[in-house]
Fold each of these.
Amino acid sequence: MTKLSKKDVLRADQFTPGDIHLILERAATYEAALAVGKELDELRGKVLATLFFEPSTRTRLSFEAAMLRLGGCVLSVSEAKSTSASKGESLHDTIKTVEGYADAIVLRHPEVGAAEVAARATAKPVLNAGDGAGEHPTQSLLDLYTIRKEQGCVDGLTISLVGDLKHGRTVHSLATLLSQYPVSFLFVSPPALRMPREVVERAQAKGISVRETDDLGLALVQSDVVYMTRIQRERFADPVEYDRLKDAYVLTRATLGKAKPSITVMHPLPRVNEISTDVDDLPGAAYFRQSANGVPVRMALLALLLD
Amino acid sequence: MTKLSKKDVLRADQFTPGDIHLILERAATYEAALAVGKELDELRGKVLATLFFEPSTRTRLSFEAAMLRLGGCVLSVSEAKSTSASKGESLHDTIKTVEGYADAIVLRHPEVGAAEVAARATAKPVLNAGDGAGEHPTQSLLDLYTIRKEQGCVDGLTISLVGDLKHGRTVHSLATLLSQYPVSFLFVSPPALRMPREVVERAQAKGISVRETDDLGLALVQSDVVYMTRIQRERFADPVEYDRLKDAYVLTRATLGKAKPSITVMHPLPRVNEISTDVDDLPGAAYFRQSANGVPVRMALLALLLD
Amino acid sequence: MTKLSKKDVLRADQFTPGDIHLILERAATYEAALAVGKELDELRGKVLATLFFEPSTRTRLSFEAAMLRLGGCVLSVSEAKSTSASKGESLHDTIKTVEGYADAIVLRHPEVGAAEVAARATAKPVLNAGDGAGEHPTQSLLDLYTIRKEQGCVDGLTISLVGDLKHGRTVHSLATLLSQYPVSFLFVSPPALRMPREVVERAQAKGISVRETDDLGLALVQSDVVYMTRIQRERFADPVEYDRLKDAYVLTRATLGKAKPSITVMHPLPRVNEISTDVDDLPGAAYFRQSANGVPVRMALLALLLD
């Protein structure tokens, strides 16, 4: 069987076009199997450890569901912080221990670079499920999978990333991954929360058109895909500034009236109020399908790493 | 295969006599299979999510054991409160997400009506494992199953419900479910903790004899089944009143001396001191068997909803 | 199939030589099967409950991995304290309840003797995963398994136990178990943290040579196996005394220069700084292999108790 080019999933920019093709095709196969209730057992007898040093029920369950749907088993640690680490154990030692129990390790950790440390500690596959402000590569893959599925194809799309683009790990990784395709970007944020220059320049270096604006309405009329993220109050030095801006980045059925009928609306979830619930019934409201896509995409990754 | 009349298990009063017959017969089949160690795999490849927004290890493990005993898999969230909900996500959104991972959802939530909200959010089966002071329908089913099994038949029994009948979710639901049968009720409580009038009237409207008393001894001599529940100190405005009453509602081997030899003693557990441990060895002490009955009853529900 | 001489695993001294032979041989068979990725299913359809009243991710995962590797299922309670016990339920009642859900119970509890209480409450196997300052018998078995495997044979070895020998549950149980073999002991500790007299005398009564010293360097030159444990600051009345001593019980690549080339270095983990990380690459650094050995040893116990 064809394999991924690396044994670990650590960063969104690690994937070759061949890797991405392999993952998305495999995910589509699994999604079709799940849809007809077909029982899969490719990973029967295999054990996955999910090691979460900060809580993320959504991501943990998505990985665990992926493993179970392939017939595998799960060792679950949702409260890793309150364990050996609290007795002073290093992450390296924790990983050296867990590799004795499992065939692959999913790690969520508050510190940037933690997944790389873990991958160096073990010959077994490590999957980064978020390392602080760093990377969350499986989220980017499921986002890409969703765009491709909802729009039929990624090439030529105009994609708006909206919200706090400065601090959002999700949008950085997604922009990086999408920069492998001939797309156009609209980065929509308050001036103080603009996309980091290196992300913009990396996209432009690939020949991608990047426009930046603080006007969501303007972006909507041109977008094939709009990817909403949350603006957190605590990011603002001045709470008055937050209150002035927050409503400008809320998507409603009314504001979507100006958009293309075929627009796809995405969100990494959980949402608070960035998307009004009156949007949920629109055919292009893809965020819950996007979340569900995490299962076949992670099934593909686990199968390619473990099979 | 015959199915339940509803896709969700939300309330004790939702079950038709046909549903109840179906569930209890199926549960008896599973109990017999478990007793001889027969391996079942009707739900192989299926995934159950147990989503507990307040802790209840007993109920969570009972549902998870039921799923595992049928060959299925479990996604377990014992600390749902510390998850997306803490980031401001609505229960509706949480359920829309979890339905992407699992084939059915067990929900425990501190708010009355939470299970109905969840059921409306998803087309997949939702099983209410307790919603605050509201309902706990699977507990009532296993109580009914236990009475039928211990006494051979429900019809004609005199059943005492004892303790804090005012606040007890368990006894309200059980009384509702038992009101489908020709039984007699003795409601035994301090005057301030009597059964709500609507529960009494609902039973009487079905032609059931209801007597209320504060004298446990009097009730014991007439009962085929005595169902004990806890009286909590915090329910009393006056602690002196609590201290005066609490010992009157403790079952001991001595107080049971006046009861029928065939009496069945039940308790939803955990007990603190409502039943003295010297009762445990009596043949009619059914509370641990009652707790174990939760597994075949929940197996029956899961199989009927998912198979 | 041959069985263990007792239905429960409660204490290190309960095992007959026949039991130990049976367990270690079976563990070796499983380890070989795991090494070639062979799928085992001897415990398919069986359910293990892991009930942890204090956190120990390492021990919990090791037991759960063992059960899963044999095709069994797991009910996991990593936060047992925040459950029925907090409502005033006795351990006896908790166990009577959990025996209704599972075929065997692993118990970790802060109180000495808790595992014995649990074993008396149920006819199903109870495995003690640590009861306060009491016993941790499966740790001792995996330690013994590791010594045998690393050194080829236990007979005739000189084994140093190092660190806080006064409070260390692990070293007490290991010394007890090793006293069944013709070994020599070196007990290496600060004078205030010496091995309890009863452990020393029990070994001597078996004809085993026991020497005690506070000089780690002296012990190293004579040892075939050195078993490091942690010295905790809180054990010292005088912090100055702690600071004076702590570095004397740290193993480094340099201090190991004086040891036999074939020396085996062990540690129950987690380590803080008792073994310098520059030791990790030495061929005799066995502590991560030791930790991994917990899986086949616990597989052997579960299979022998449940099959």
Amino acid sequence: MNREQLINEIKKKNSFLCIGLDSDKSKIPKHLLKYKDPVFEFNRQIIEATQDLCVAIKPNLAFYEAGGSTGWKSLEKTLKIIPKGIFTIADAKRGDIGNTSGLYAKAFFETLNFDAITVAPYMGSDSVIPFLKFKDKWVILLALTSNAGANDFQMGKHKMENGKWLFQNVLEISKHWGTVENMMYVVGATQASALKEIRKIIPNNFLLIPGVGAQGGSLEEVCKYGMKKECGLLVNSSRSIIYAGDGKDFAEKARVEAKKLQIEMAGMIKMKMGIKW
Amino acid sequence: MNREQLINEIKKKNSFLCIGLDSDKSKIPKHLLKYKDPVFEFNRQIIEATQDLCVAIKPNLAFYEAGGSTGWKSLEKTLKIIPKGIFTIADAKRGDIGNTSGLYAKAFFETLNFDAITVAPYMGSDSVIPFLKFKDKWVILLALTSNAGANDFQMGKHKMENGKWLFQNVLEISKHWGTVENMMYVVGATQASALKEIRKIIPNNFLLIPGVGAQGGSLEEVCKYGMKKECGLLVNSSRSIIYAGDGKDFAEKARVEAKKLQIEMAGMIKMKMGIKW
């Protein structure tokens, strides 16, 4: 999916919601365990119940790899039923030397046919650029993450000698590797106060914002500092949507939570962007 | 496998060789394609031919994920036939927020039963510590990698304001997360000149050294600056061993290359450590 198509989907649905399919076999409703592939059935019902409310779906690979090749099979089946028009993100945080990153790109963009993958920046340009060689596919580079460990290196004890945090240098250097048409950045919702500075470095790249919901980030803060004319945000919620219920009506309950966020987002779009689509 | 057991294997085999199973279906000998699982058959023959010469085996996940769930199946089968006594490393370069890293740990330490996993440090302490909670399992944290992109952030344009490179800060901060019994570090063989400084920060942790062979690193340099009383090194070679031949005798040719490195290593052990085991 290209940038224009993504923006059109956001307009059409009045939403920039990304739903994180962190589907853990030990946490899904018990009645699903009778299915041959409980994780797939869980995902299927969540997708069916929320597809008109979200513009992106983001499975985190850890939850599938925990099941080994069986987990990967559930993921492959899930990808096949995600409706066209929904932007698919492999939250995989990969990155390796050049030829190896090229194989990861093949795995996620060709074998699994994701639109985007999250990538870790530590290994530098040649670990990221192989992902940027696929048409209408996206790198979502980790910049400033939502967890406490972001204070170890990203915005840690020491700044860089140019007076900037590591995450600022990551943004400034990496923005030249791609364009606003194939690079997004991860910025945690718990880091909303940093968004103003981040927008000075990368005014137009889309940001993937996790951490709203269970992790405590505020949607309003995120929009205040991060939203742009063409929206420029994908805000993710995982646990607070997918585990909203644990009975037979879990998918309806997930819909209720997704709808709450979508309505809030529609309000932000109207208020902050000053437009009525 | 614990540290003592690993050191005993190094002594017994007079080798600190790690063989990287970067097994790419498009590069393995053509006659193997008639097998139901060509990648597994390739790995099986390589392992059989080299198991007395190496102390560690390191599949890089990208090569398996490129095949999707089928690739993961080949990896699972491979893990099951690696002989006891060989230290197994998942070269996966994972790392995510705490509960998610915990699931990656489960995937690699329990589902696949690896001894160790490579982890990227960018997300900080809570992305690494969940991996350290498993008995006799290891984190191998990326410190200074062998690729050109290491010059973007790890040892890049800017030092940190404390006068150190990012990779030095990563070593100094992260060494307190674990112990020499559960943490190793990745240092590229192409970075041998930095090993002297690295050994001042982490004198006793084992180092996993990729980049000897196809990437051009020198074993002698690595040993000169990195080797310690209890060896402290695992030196990896992937392509120059596993793709030494492309005919029916590919495994014998791989053995010849592995043997050359093992003999060189035995010499280093004798010369640099001043001992005859």
Amino acid sequence: MKNFGLSELLLVDPPDLDPDGEAYGFAGHAREDVLPNAREVEFDHLVENYHTVGCTAITNDDHRRHVRYPFRTPAELADSLAGVSAGTCVVFGRERVGLTNGELERLDEVCSIPASADYPVLNLGQAATVVLYELRELTVEETQLPETIERAPERDVEGLHDQFSTLLDALGVEGTQRRRTERLWRRLLGRAHPTTREASTLRGILRRAEEGLRHGLPGEREG
Amino acid sequence: MKNFGLSELLLVDPPDLDPDGEAYGFAGHAREDVLPNAREVEFDHLVENYHTVGCTAITNDDHRRHVRYPFRTPAELADSLAGVSAGTCVVFGRERVGLTNGELERLDEVCSIPASADYPVLNLGQAATVVLYELRELTVEETQLPETIERAPERDVEGLHDQFSTLLDALGVEGTQRRRTERLWRRLLGRAHPTTREASTLRGILRRAEEGLRHGLPGEREG
């Protein structure tokens, strides 16, 4: 929860939460706020006060049984909730048996994580991680990652390509082979999206190679 | 791993894996195959034999320090690896300290999960869950979820809209209010994407209401 910007934990019929116990032991920094601030409520309280989304690994195959169908995947849920202005509660069930049909039919939506058909049931903590990860754009104001990767300006990339061509000149690569090699280089670098530092470093290396080919390496020139 | 279709676990300098111990206790069905089949290898073995992706919560803010930058998010990694035909190894670090800079600089790519800037460091098991969840389209042949949600055919949805209009007729709703109400209804149902069962059930309810309004409810007619 804390990794993805959530703070309000409501517990229905929980076991005792011992500050020296297992839940606190695994909670990381959430032991400072999320767990001590958790409130114990009745299931009815959720139904009556929130737009509720029940999470379950098992849906039904079609529309004939409606308690678990239709469902949304976590990514679809994030898109859908982006347009909703309402207190929303994501409801996870018990570690071993999840939510009962009786509980699911009282909730407003059903969410299910796509997983291996052979083994679709995630641990509770991992199911919560995936759902909250997908909801992060609604709940996390600022991530730890820089906004965008700082790709080199196009002129720097073109400068690198020019330097590569100059190296091919120095190597005497011409004609069809020249055009193929230039195209291969451009496509390879195009996929890699070099940063300014990468482009300038590599350009420097190629220039040194080219100049070495034309004029001899610095040590040779001196000698 | 097993939830998302992966089976090959390589461990570098692991602690003892006791079949009665903690790792087995949390492993669910993976205790039947993934854990007993895990192989112990050297870090060098990964570098020399796989396309390697190192996972880390902390990137650098810009391109001047290059060990951890540039990075891909898990979703970008999935897109990128979709075009790669190579044995790929996703490398996670130690629970408390992750991968060292010395390790990261020997790996081919860096992946980082966007999370709260205030608390971006996930537990190892949760980081692995998010990354493998995002890679699922490359690793899971078939999920437990039906391919597509069976939305009602358009004619059934239109039939529901017609029935709603007929109810408005019966209620004597006309003019501007009529057009507004029909538009509101169409937009509400448009967002909900009703299934065949939902559309036919609701249409039946509206028809009963309309017929009751016109002719009296069945009990009243009898009486």
Amino acid sequence: MSTQDLSREQRVDQLYSRIHELLDRGETRKAQIIIEALLPADQAEIFRDLPDDEQLQILQGLPLEETADILEKLEDEEVAEIAGLLPPEQLANILDEMEPDEAADLLGDLPAEDAVRILGLMETQEEISPLLLHADETAGGLMTSEYLALGQNMWAERALEAIRQWAPEHEYLYYFVVDKEGHLVGVASLLQIIKASPKAELQSFMDRNRISATVDADQEACAQLMSWYDLTALPVVDDNQHLVGVITIDDIVDVLEDEATEDIQRLGGAAPLDKPYLRTSTWEVTRSRVGWLLLLFITGLITTSVMEHFEGVLKSVVALSIYVPLLIGTGGNAGSQTIATIIRALSVNEIDRKDALRVLWHEIRVGILMGLIVAIAGFLRAWIGEGDPLMGLTIGTAIGLIVFWSTSVGSLLPLIASLLGVDPTLVSGPLMSTVVDATGLFIYLTVAQWILSI
Amino acid sequence: MSTQDLSREQRVDQLYSRIHELLDRGETRKAQIIIEALLPADQAEIFRDLPDDEQLQILQGLPLEETADILEKLEDEEVAEIAGLLPPEQLANILDEMEPDEAADLLGDLPAEDAVRILGLMETQEEISPLLLHADETAGGLMTSEYLALGQNMWAERALEAIRQWAPEHEYLYYFVVDKEGHLVGVASLLQIIKASPKAELQSFMDRNRISATVDADQEACAQLMSWYDLTALPVVDDNQHLVGVITIDDIVDVLEDEATEDIQRLGGAAPLDKPYLRTSTWEVTRSRVGWLLLLFITGLITTSVMEHFEGVLKSVVALSIYVPLLIGTGGNAGSQTIATIIRALSVNEIDRKDALRVLWHEIRVGILMGLIVAIAGFLRAWIGEGDPLMGLTIGTAIGLIVFWSTSVGSLLPLIASLLGVDPTLVSGPLMSTVVDATGLFIYLTVAQWILSI
């Protein structure tokens, strides 16, 4: 970043201390003046770290638009918390200043009764209500109703006049064009409109090649569509192709970040956190993880049963137990490698369910190759370590089979989950380890029984 | 997606078959006509799956701009492959039609001699050369030199005229304003320019609040800056604040997806793949994983040493080995949960290195709580399973300590990596498992020695 940006974090930290100090001394007005001079994103960063009472101090007397800007930049849960502290009238006024899609999101996070009461107090009620009907993570939940639809028979100069008079908070590069019944028929850029001859009808120069999403489309699918076609705005239509809203690129950037966070946290076997990490309490973090950890503990008991089943084998050759951690560890690693590749290929749509057999076949070949390589390493280690070629053969064969098996399982698990309509990241990571641990032990000790003829 | 989009994949698949058939029969012109009728993104999707010879068939006779559009949508490695097949003159002509940043990327992927020769044949040589100086993953590598800088003393009507006459491939919503020396001084939107009175100077209404990146800034940092401030274009400046390029939002969307893919693949312990999954050969996939798997195998040998160290203990109480997979598995799971949370918090900048102690303290408390809960479960299982309260105490104590320990290690490893300037995802996932396995075994068997006084 440039010099002023490199130190953005320090600058924000410094401002935070200063504002905190002023509020502490009761000099609210001075603190507000500093806040007002900042960009919304920085305002939000400082604001979110202030104690509850100081947040309220700031909000009293801050212009409504400023408050709306700050709340728009905060995480959903943080906003819901602050909203709970404000008198309903003030909250309604702030919501009126927010972008419709953000206001609808916030209302959706409040207890139903509160949401209804506050909606009743709002001026933009009619604009917001339809947005409340859609689930948060769909195109309908993501879109804004603040858009300007232009008629296809409009002259360029009239369209330009309409755009000039319409003063949205966000500026748009593209404007969507509809027919008399409100069906989406095309798109025109501001530059096209400026360049067109004043009396040209929009339909004479607009672009007809339309990509759109229906209101119930998944937000991740919308993100991919926009990313693939390089769109900065995606029109949302109902089942009859009527234009009902627009998704803008800044919302999609947030969706992509959130979805990647969810994927990564789920792969690690923890429920995604709704709040920034340092704002979540010990108990909230524990709650997001402990259920899954206990579930895995219970499934992990299968390994204990497998070990008990082979207790005789383990007793007669104690050296076998020495290799247990190495063998199941290696199996887990091979499985993780595969699963990470497959999950990501699934989530960026490089592959889908119908490719299951091709993927399995790909991974079977990879598994055989990797299994052979690791088998040689295992054979050498155990032969030298135990001074017994039969032990070498046991460990080598077992580790080779385990790597082959984990690679194949690692490719199938996410695809099966996706077929069953379950999020592949959920059943991958730690669940895969447990499956691979138990089956790997079974493979290992069966091989040992054969080769060492116990 | 709307009906036409829901079936986009099938539609593309169908078109692919049709085009493949036509090319096979030598009806190249017909295939080209179909290709030309599609959007660039769809053209690229069909094109990338065609065999090499059919790709060349298509490219011969396709207008240069169409070819440029297709190549821009493909992955870097795919383009480099195709570029290698084309005569240098044709390639130079195609590159002239591409966006400067994409053309520079492509040249950067070619062997140095070829790149120099082709650059010499290009008309846009002067525009591209400066872009070649910057590393691919920096602001300089990401920016385009195709931008229009407006002078601060320009009248609104003159600026509008300049914008009208400038016909870039991409349309821009914001235009950056510079002083006489070319220093970045502000930004004006197209709408602001339209609305301003014709003789108003840009500096009288432009926005002075400037966020910019220097040419050597990391691309991920640029993505975060744009996401945080909701920018659709980010100006890039040199060390003297001269405007040298612009990064557009569509590039950032790609960066975010690529970075998340890299994170996820590294967490799984595989080197990121450069090509779409199904296009990589068995050998390429194996190569991306086998080195890491062998390295982990070698570090995993520490577990074998720990087990050998305690061979006496394991021999005298064989039941102890039965719990080995469960204990190290649970430790690994607790560690993965923590690491996933921390890695993601680091990569979306919720925390940074200076928060290391706060994070550790947070995770220590979480670890104690989780350790206690799992200890109770372990105690009950082993007491009931072995009919011996001392075994219950051993397993319960060991598993509690292991969970506490793995949680703490899981929070520290990524932070230490980040302090050392290593990518935290690299040392996390599988490496963490190995560390936790070895130390976990040591904790377990030491606890057993004490409690069972072996």
